[in-house]
Maltose/maltodextrin transport system permease protein (Paenibacillus phyllosphaerae), 459 residues
Amino acid sequence: MNELSSKQSPAWAAGLLSAIVWGAGQGWNRQYLKGLLFLLIGAGAAAAELATGSYTRDSLADGFRFRENGGFFLKGIWGLITLGTQPRKMGLTGLTAGDHSIVLMANGIIALLFLLLLALFYIWNIRDAVTTRRQYCETGIRESSLQHFKRLWDTMYAYIVLSPTAVLTLFVSVLPIVFGVLIAFTDYSRNNSPPTKLVHWVGFDNFATVTQVFSWMHTFLGVLLWTFVWAILATVTTYLFGFFQAVLLNNSAVKFKKLWRSIYILPWAVPAMISALVFKSMFNGQFGPVSQFLLDIGLTSERIYWFTDPGNTNLARGMALLINLWLGFPYFMALIGGTLTTISESYYEAARMDGATSGQTFWNITFPIVYKATAPLLMLSFVSNFNNFGVIYFLTEGGPANPDYNFAGSTDLLITWLYKLTLDNRLYSMGAVMSIIVFLIVASFSLINLRKSKTFEEL
């Protein structure tokens, strides 16, 4: 032991000690407090497994079984792999004991995330022991635990402060995402729902269903095409109309500018859901005042079913775009109005001296400068409209009905179709597949356009 603890001992020996027993290498390096902290982390994980499992002599008499004996970590990983082996059954006294596949999956993901964190600490524990020993062998300087913690705080203060938020994000944001992705690879649906039935892993069968079954593929392509059309038109119309309003209000001939801005900003200030429900009532085909007014003045001979006429789906789509224009243009009006105030007046003076018309001034000075400043937000608006659940769902609920589609209407976007698949029809696995596809489309499109605009390029 004296030889191992000498200055010439290899650094890997300290790492080997920490690999066998958490913190042992730090103890050999005489960093006892640091070694104790690593030991407590490792011992705490082992204690959690023992406390939540069944490791008594009687329970292990017939051998170790993950389902009956495993604790938080071992049973969690077993449940994530198998999704259970014994479904619950309805008896005279209620449901019998058994496995709930979805609970097992959730617990398994949590256990896996904890194991990943423990793995990071374990690697840190080994690397720290090796690094400290190597430094001592090379310099002869032995850093105490308190000196190490002080140096760590000074050099990695930002990471230490951010780490609690990162861990919280791991379990609040990453966990649901992983859960949703994994559901896409199961047969979880209303016809195969726990606890009386077990969910099974089916691999890529659900993705094959979307691409190979005609009804699903037809629905997906139809909804996808309309989603792109909607996102493009909804973004372009709100941007251009907001641009137009901002230019008008920026004109020196307009009086009471604050009053006009206050009036035009009201549609944006009112919650979109409230406005959508109001418009839905106003344009109700059977009881709405708009249809009644047109009928009373003789412009129409019968009531117009703005959102529910299956023979005129473009009417519902056009109305949705108009109402979205009303709700969305104030945002760009305010945004572009602020940008217009930053354009130097010298540009316009030079243009007037060169004999440029107002149209030439707009297209060669105003529009390029404003577009360059607002292009990133224009892209974010496109992504937002691509997933604009509120306007479509609260306005049309995806209607009019389309008999050629699976669980979708003529104005459904991918996001509203996904909602119907999961909550209305409980086709959870297919809904998860759609959520993955939506994510891939939006992420790819956003990444390509943001790279082209060089908005987030590092300086």
